[in-house]
Design a protein that fits this description.
The complex is a heterodimer of chains A (75) and B (642). Chain A is of the alpha+beta class. The radius of gyration of chain A is 11 Å and the shape is globular. Chain A is 29% helix and 29% strand. Chain B has 642 residues and is α+β, with helices and mostly antiparallel strands. In chain B, the strands form three sheets. In chain B, strands 1, 2, 3, 4, 5, 6, 7 and 8 form an eight-stranded antiparallel sheet that branches. Classes of the chains: A alpha+beta (75), B alpha+beta (642). At the A-B interface, α1 of A face α1, α3, α5, α8 and α11 of B.
């Protein structure tokens, strides 16, 4: 398991959180219970299985629903 | 598409606003109803489009959002051909969201300032010895980095060459700059005020102490209290319920306008955002002063605290003996000089306190010295016989003691002092009282805590009961217990909790983790060590005692702010509901205006917390300011960081 940390554009509405969390959780290989969107820090964190998916896929999933990812890292 | 809408949302909002103004101009200046309707229709479409798109996105992940309510309201207004209302609702909603974003950014600014304490790039040594600028994320442990004057230190590490002074206020809260030479540790997020150093990276990125502090604060700002979770659950069902209610009312009354108005009025707004914004502002304010709250649950509990327990005498006192009084019986000066000469040779803890007290006096050469077990030292200094020790030593050497001297000694001892007596050539010259003194300001801080409503102040100490009693009496503590082991302290916490008290435990986070963990609020004082951060609920980065009343005052202010915001939100809902049923002037445009207005009011209310300073702090600040004027620019830079 690796942990992805995405720095998002500034989040302003609570619904955005639900949408982003949903989009990340839907990526195959992401541990659903680990998905966490920090509203105030505008960050998303999630654990994922590096054999099933990667950071780019997760980043793309967030971009697809219309939110910009400023920085992404995994460890 | 979605992205384009997000990017151009502000532009669309502006266009919607301009079209509405033009529509009214057409109506009043040119009396053209067709032009007016056309312009309003255009405004509704342009304003409504991003809202509808957003609602659709939410629906795709099975979320019924506020955007959906507004979209339906706009569509409803279209059906009954109320273009004026649909345009205004769309505009208010978009413009309100814009203002929310701007003001929310303000409430988050405190934490952002903290994050910016770490630089984005660093100068790394390459294989040929030059330095290249690299992104912070590309650094590894073991890299050699160059930091110049007024540079921000990018990693936790060790100085390998060069020297300078660093301001570590962001980590320790201590604002005096520290000298750094090879072998000294340096921390990310601190500033090299002058000098140039090369450092070897030991921890980088999130692994650094500073990185952990940031992570802690970020998580805290988003952690939810029980009340908030309730509101969250509530709003999850609330929105669909409003939708259902509007449909039912519409069907029964056959009045589409009423149904649409209910949709707008039912938008959850201030209630959902009110508590989190107070939380963010309060935690942000704390973080800037080195007070870390782990979430709003902690703030709520801490604000109701009944009992505060202190882990050891050393929290309230300096922790080592200091000279408190000196009685002189002879000419003084020479005896003092002889005393310092003898004590300089000794490793006894009292000797250190004495040489520290007389640091200006020059020591003479000690020609011979001998230790008398259980008594003290007999020495030959500059041709004179010097005795330094206790009463037993004096009696052994038949030094005469008068009634007056006798009384002085008793007085010193009963005030909790250890005695050091000095006789020169068989005459008693000095009697020194040494004790572990109360830290400056602690008395005022404890009084402040009582004023803030703390009922019980307890000292739990490992020291003997007599010492503990003296400290308790001097400070006005309500209870004090000595000779306790760490596990006894945890039992105390348990006992008081069982009696229904909300207990805070103040410790240094090293030996008292059981008590820190058991207490309702564990307060770790002194440093940002990993243990302290993990086991406690409140971390005070700075060891200074005045952070405790500051933290409590801030917690109370934050709690008050949350309650104000909930009250505002509920009052607005009540007023809207009553007026839609009982008045004729309420329509969806006014409803949307009030709704967005109330959101802004709660955000602005929360922003007051960012500037919050307790009364105690205000008076201290004045003293600090005077101090910084006296010492010049040296401490100026620090003021601005705090």
């Amino acid at each position: 398991m690796k942990k992805a940390i995405l720095q998002l554009e500034t989040l302003a509405c609570p619904t955005c959180m639900q949408k982003i969390a949903g989009a990340i959780a839907n990526v195959d290989g992401v541990e659903k219970t680990s998905v966490k969107v920090l509203f105030n820090a505008s960050k998303a964190k999630a654990n994922f299985d590096p054999e099933k998916t990667n950071l780019d896929t997760i980043t793309q999933a967030v971009k697809n629903i219309g939110y910009d990812v400023l920085k992404a890292s995994a460890k | 598409m979605q992205k384009w809408l997000m990017k151009n949302r502000n532009r669309l909002t502006a266009i919607t606003g301009i079209l509405i103004v033009l529509a009214f101009a057409a109506k009043w200046l040119f009396k053209s109803e067709t032009a007016e309707s056309g312009l309003l229709l255009a405004a509704s479409l342009i304003g409504g489009f991003p809202i509808a798109a957003s609602a659709w996105q939410a629906l795709k992940v099975k979320v019924i959002s506020i955007d959906l309510l507004v979209t339906l309201a706009i569509l409803g207004a279209f059906v009954i051909q109320e273009f004026e209302e649909s345009a205004i609702v769309a505009f208010f909603f978009l413009f309100g969201a814009y203002l929310e974003q701007r003001t929310l950014a303000k409430t988050r600014s405190a934490i952002k300032e903290l994050v910016e304490m770490v630089p984005e790039t660093a100068l790394r040594q390459t294989a040929d010895g030059d330095f290249e600028e690299v992104d912070l994320d590309d650094l590894d442990e073991g890299d050699i980095l160059l930091v110049k004057t007024v540079g921000k230190i990018p990693v936790d590490g060790e100085v390998v060459s060069g020297s300078g002074t660093a301001n570590e206020a962001s980590i320790t809260g201590e604002s005096m700059p520290l000298g750094k030479k090879p072998g000294d540790p340096v921390y990310a997020g601190t500033i090299l005020e002058n000098g140039t150093i090369r450092i070897k990276a030991e921890k980088v990125g999130d692994e650094t102490t500073f990185g952990k502090i940031i992570e802690l604060v970020e998580e805290a700002q988003d952690s939810k209290s029980q009340a908030e979770r309730l509101i969250d659950r509530f709003s999850k069902y609330y929105t669909p319920v409003v939708l259902l209610l509007a449909i039912i009312v519409g069907l029964i009354s056959q009045d589409l306008e009423l149904a649409v108005t209910i949709l707008v009025l039912g938008c959850p707004g201030a209630l959902v955002i009110g508590v989190p914004v107070s939380n963010v502002a309060g935690i942000g304010n704390g973080a800037k002063q080195g007070i870390l709250f782990k979430g709003s649950e902690v703030i709520t509990k801490f604000s109701k605290v009944d009992t505060i327990m202190f882990d050891k005498t050393g929290t309230l006192t300096y922790g080592d003996p200091r000279v408190s009084q000196v009685k002189k019986y002879g000419q003084g000066q020479l005896a003092e000089q002889l005393l310092v000469s003898v004590e300089k040779e000794s490793a006894h803890p009292l000797a250190k306190a004495i040489t520290g007290y007389y640091e200006d006096l020059e020591a003479k050469e000690v020609e011979a010295s001998q230790v008398l077990q259980g008594g003290g030292i007999v020495a030959q200094v500059a041709g004179q016989q010097v005795l330094v020790g206790n009463r037993y030593l004096l009696d052994e050497y038949h030094v005469p003691v008068t009634k007056e001297m006798e009384r002085d000694m008793e007085k010193l001892a009963s005030a909790g002092n250890s005695l050091v007596l000095v006789a020169v050539n068989g005459q008693l010259e000095l009697a020194l009282g040494l004790k572990d003194e109360i830290r400056a300001g602690v008395k005022e801080d404890l009084a402040a805590l009582k004023k803030l409503g703390v009922k019980n102040l307890l000292l739990l100490s490992g020291d003997n009961q007599k010492t503990v009693d003296l400290v308790a009496e001097e400070l006005g503590l309500t209870e004090a217990y000595g000779q306790l082991l760490p596990e006894d302290k945890a039992k105390f916490v348990k006992k008081r909790q069982a009696a229904g008290e909300i207990v805070a435990f103040v410790g240094d986070g090293i030996n008292d983790s059981p008590s820190l963990a058991r207490a309702d609020i564990g307060i770790a004082m002194g440093s940002g060590t990993d243990v302290a951060i993990e086991t406690s609920n409140v971390v005070l980065m700075n060891g200074s005692f005045d952070r405790i009343p500051r933290a409590l005052a801030l917690a109370k202010a934050t709690r008050r702010n949350m309650i104000e915001n909930i009250t505002i939100a509920l009052a607005v809902v009540a007023v809207l509901l009553v007026s839609v049923l009982a008045s004729s002037w309420m329509n969806m445009a006014i409803g949307m205006f009030v709704h967005e207005g109330s959101i802004l009011v709660v955000i602005l209310n929360a922003m007051r917390l960012l500037a919050y300073r307790s009364k105690l702090q205000k008076s201290r600040k004045l003293i600090e300011n005077n101090f910084s004027q006296a010492t010049g620019p040296y401490t100026k830079g620090i003021e601005s960081i705090q």
